[in-house]
Amino acid sequence: MPNKKSAEKRVITSERNRLYNKYWISRCKTAVKGLIAAVEAGNKDEAVKTFNLAQSVIDKAVVKGVMHKNTAARRKELMSRRMKAMEA
Fold first, then answer.
1. What is the average pLDDT across 46-73?
2. What's this model's pTM, rounded to 2 decimal places?
3. CATH number at residue 76
């Protein structure tokens, strides 16, 4: 346990931030998994819809400081490749 008042505050703040980051990372992963499922099922309309949703969620995570912009760009590129592979 922390010995100082400021250290107690940091414990509370870091726990709050951990839960916030966990929520956004989980939301990103869920969106990407939805896209992968739609692509594997071969459902083009659903894949396009989930692709747009996943991109939006990832971009929001970047704006909120949960994910680095290069990480987001890499993940969106991988999703884009899956979409192109499905069309081919």
1. 97
2. 0.89
3. 1.20.58.110
